[in-house]
Design a protein that fits this description.
mainly alpha; 202 residues
């Protein structure tokens, strides 16, 4: 009897996975898209400033830092208050994946900050975007496995490829920042918008 009950539970679980509607991650998409937009534009602004094409000059860096972090933090607070607990196994898995990557990014940032304090200098931070990109690739690889959608696999491959491209450009900081800005807009802001759209049209 116990074996039959366990088998029945397993079949019910599998059916629930097969019958799940397309993943709805509105809040995750909003946060992801907002991050891509804020930091993508900031990276582009820094790249143009390094080329001498910014009317703000050197002020671009600290103004951009305050603006991007400020807007994103306000967005996180507002959207977190409005967020609802995701339903469905796939939804919970992907929400957990994105949240886990967010935590990993924060821990990595703390590690880089400590490394800077040991005497490595601020230059160590130029490696941080590549770490973030690798984490993002892992998250979207999970999304591709769960949703079995081609576009999520393309996003994962794009993040992995961006790590290699950024590594090749590390000696040209202006080009590095411009490419990073484009990557954040294409692989973060755009997918965020797609997630919002998929939530609106399950």
């Amino acid at each position: 009897m116990t074996t039959e009950t366990g088998l029945g539970d397993d079949l019910t679980f599998i059916r629930s996975l097969l019958k799940e509607r397309p993943v709805q991650l509105r809040t995750t998409g909003q946060l992801y898209g907002l991050a891509g937009l804020c930091y993508g534009l900031y990276a582009l602004a820094c790249g143009f400033a390094l080329l001498g094409w910014s009317p703000l000059g050197d002020a671009t860096f600290w103004i951009g830092t305050l603006a991007s972090n400020g807007v994103f933090c306000v967005g996180v607070i507002v959207l977190s208050v409005r967020a609802k607990t995701p339903e469905g196994v796939a939804n919970r898995a992907l929400t957990g994946g994105f949240a886990g990557v967010g935590i990993a990014n924060a821990v990595a940032a703390l590690g880089f900050s400590l490394a800077q304090r040991t005497g490595l200098g601020a230059e160590v931070w130029i490696l941080f975007p590549m770490v973030v990109a690798a984490f993002q690739g892992a998250c979207w690889f999970l999304a591709a496995l769960v949703t079995r959608r081609l576009w999520t696999a393309v996003i994962a491959a794009g993040w992995y490829l961006s790590v290699l491209v950024l590594a090749l450009l590390i000696s040209m900081v202006w080009a590095y920042m411009l490419v990073l800005g484009a990557v954040l807009l294409l692989l973060m802001a755009l997918p965020g918008w797609i997630l919002i759209r998929s939530a609106s049209n399950p």
